[in-house]
Amino acid sequence: MAAVAESVRAALPPYLRALWSGQPQLKFVDAMPFIDGHAIHVPLDHASPAGAGAWQWYRAAVAHSAAHLAFSPPVFDGRGLAPISRALLGVLEDARIEALAYRELPGLRRLWMPLHTASPADGEGFEAMLLRLSRSLLDPGYQDDHPWIRKGRALFYGDDARQTLLLRRPDELRLAASLLGNDIGQMRLQFNSRMYVPGPDYRDDSRWMWASGQSDEPQPVEPPPSHSSDPGNSDEVAQAAAPATGPVLRYPEFDRLIARLRHGWCSVSQQSVSADHHAEGRLAISRSDTQAITLALIRILRQSRAHRSRATQIAHEGDAFDIDAVVRMRVARRVRRASDALVFRRTVAQSRQGQLMVIIDQSASSSHAWAGSTTSLLQAACAITASLASALQACGMQVAIVGFSSNGRHAVALRGVKDFAEPMDEAVVLRLAGLRSQHSTRLGTAIRHATRAVVDTRGRGSRQVVIVSDGLPWDVDVHDPQYLVSDAHDAVMRARRQGVVVSCLVLELAGQSSAQKVFGACRVGMLQTLADLPEHVRRLGI
Q1: Which residues touch 515 (CB under 8 Å, ≥6 apart)?
Q2: What is the pLDDT of residue 363?
Q3: Fewer Cβ close by (within 10 Å): the C or N end of the chain?
């Protein structure tokens, strides 16, 4: 057994690094598995069958503990919870983080399931019921018709296929544990909290959940963002720590390998943007240039609006005869009936209506120089957005602006610069200047969020989304170069089915091909100077 243990000990750290982007410390001790800070402790030896059995158990143990480090909050609020409810809360949290883990890495479910052996034959003692509940929440093939087990499944999952997790936050887990604990009390089941050991035995002992020095409020169950390999400056750190301005939203993502959506796969936090009062230096494009482009855009937009003119009334005077009115007048005269002389059609230019959201790519690559100039891609994107939004709003459109970046699928940040109802004024320009380059570009998630925001306005007229980007989707947790391109294209097609037109203004020639795969060649404009903007707005029909 010593040779097996030595080989397992050598193989576990690389296995752990392959599972998650973080590198928790792994320690071998004379105890059951437990978590202490960012360290995972596993036994020096375990009574498993030799060979593959030992390897499977140790992999299951470290994978479970690492899932806690990836998906669990630092601590739970245990005040006012009875020992039974604490035990149940531990079981529910174990099941929750395992569900999140095997959704990301499906092979983990196959790793853990053989270690769950509980069944109705084990009886109805409290600890046996906990083991049966644990298996029921993990193993879709396990059948257990006990009413308490069925209730636990119903509280945990929102559908029979067990795809929708209902328990995501500590307060939701606490409520479910209290409800199930009350039923245990009604069933008069005995529980010795001092002798209780969570099971199955590959799971940690949950001591981390009830650490001292807890805050007054429960911590939100937010998976920590992956750590980017790119070092950030102080501006980036400050922006990354910006407070959320709304609830965390979850969006699906298209997996091209299985050709289906992974529901609730990406988490989006909505953050505020601090104004930069040194806007001139940040935007790096003179106000005279942007004002000239804005005026050119207004002329183009008003010309295109004239082509959308419509007749509003029949009048005594006008631009042309209304044929139907002339016929009616002639008929009335032939039958000697009175008629009016309203036979002209008066046309009035239709006011441009609609909602448009501009999405600015803030990824780390947006710090690169734009077209060989001293202006960065992000600075150019902000100047382009300022001109476009000003012109559109002057012509009657409602415009919103957001910046976005990502640091893994659970850390997609959208930073609100301007709301639809807000005027395009100096305050918005200062917030544009406050955007910083950082992290990556999970484009499909940003498009889905913008589509939802535009549709939810329920306004009249056209609905559009315009992305200003280098055109290269990428993120730290994706290794397939076509994965995020396919997902972004899926997001664009779904937006079109909802009546939302999605276009892209590309700032780097290297990203043009990728952008055309996502949006289609007719919805992509390549900008190498600010003067290119009016012509592309005309061509794209923005």
Answers
A1: 469, 471, 504, 506, 524
A2: 92
A3: N
